[in-house]
Amino acid sequence: MEESASRSDKKKVVAVVGGGLVGALNACYFAKRGFDVQVFETREDIRKAKIVKGRSINLALSHRGRSALKHVGMEDKIVSKGIPMHARMIHSLSGKQSPIPYGKKGQLLLQRLNPTEAETYPNTTLNFGRKLSDGSEEEIQADLIVGCDGAFSAIRKQFLRRSRFNFSQTYIPHGYMELTMPPINGEFAMKPNYLHIWPRNTFMMIALPNLDKTFTCTLFMPFEEFEKITTGDEVIEFFQKYFPDTIPLIGVDALKRDYFRLPGQAMVSVKCTPYHIGDKCVLMGDAAHAVVPFYGQGMNAGFEDCIVFEEIMEQFNEDFSAVLPEYTRVRVPDDHAIADLAMYNYIEMRAHVNSRWFLFRKHVDNFLHAIMPKTIIPLYTMVTFSRIRYHEAVKRWHWQDKVRCFKKICHLLFIFHSLAARRNVSDFSNLAADEPVSPWPHAELSDVTCAAGFSTNGP
């Protein structure tokens, strides 16, 4: 009681720089603890803006993000505004659609979160249209500065001036472009509770549903491929070759018009360490670990930053001199792990989902998980449906994959599965007892093993 009274005598002030997803949630966490919270956001209030600018890649909310929202009583309110996602729907060149279930309840698709909830706390002030610059004209006194200002963080730039701060950013050689698939007769043009994927090996398109019954179609492709298409007729020719089933759904005129509305947009992955300076400043969300969007964990990782920081605050009794170093120690390996997984998962989504081995391996993973749920857990399940630390999930997956018996079972089952599918008993006479057999006539066995060795099953 004396400790609580002492703290209330002098409230600590927290300045949250960035009023986006992670900044707004952080404001709720600090306000709930009784801190005076000041949120500073460069953009105008999105609740009042007529046009909201910025990237609009849809947001996948899974277990980690929901856990963070639940802690401040926001889960039910946010979940009620989302669209449940049950599975992937793979679209082949021929137009065939094949669902790949997620194996659990799936994810929830969100389109926008705003700072309204943070403003319900009387000890929180939202300041819009405020930009951090090198020569600040206004001085703010705060006990802690929390940098939640995105991948190109102004707060992080101040870290770069200090020694022993490691930073890297990587732009992938692929860009993205968004197209809109309108509703048909007031209803979704495709099944809404799926992540629709058109995998084409070196590029892909995905489609996700919106609350207004439209789909946002996002084409991910090497920049040079975007630049090769210069006329409306070339757009239609390209879609006719690779995505023919989408032309009547999006519309010829819309494709010709919208393709040239904006050039392919860049995607960046950011890593840095440490996440803190002394006991005065800490980075969270994209400011600390921007990731490419191919695992559906960017927002979830940012939200998990908030709850991890809260748990450490509880552990160290709000002593920032102990909390901030511990936060860096705990979070850096996890955030770097999910950044790497997101990079790799683009390869899986655009290419591996086309392979029979990938589909077979996924079925085997799910089967073994069903009969040995505590021993074999698919990586996607660990990442999306639990709070197992990201880097520990990767370590566990590698361990599972290295279990000799597990690998032998997979290879043997796949070989027999392929043989059974051919329905040709005479094939058995062609198998030498000491010679491994590739499931594809033109693929080396080493290629197949490599493709299966780091499957993420993801988003």
From TrEMBL:
Cofactor: FAD
GO molecular function: FAD binding; kynurenine 3-monooxygenase activity
EC number: 1.14.13.9
Transmembrane segments annotated in the record for this chain: none
Membrane-topology annotation of the record: Multi-pass membrane protein
UniProt keywords, alphabetically: FAD, Flavoprotein, Membrane, Mitochondrion, Mitochondrion outer membrane, Monooxygenase, NADP, Oxidoreductase, Pyridine nucleotide biosynthesis
Pathway: Cofactor biosynthesis; NAD(+) biosynthesis; quinolinate from L-kynurenine: step 1/3
Record protein name field: Kynurenine 3-monooxygenase
Species of the source: Sparus aurata
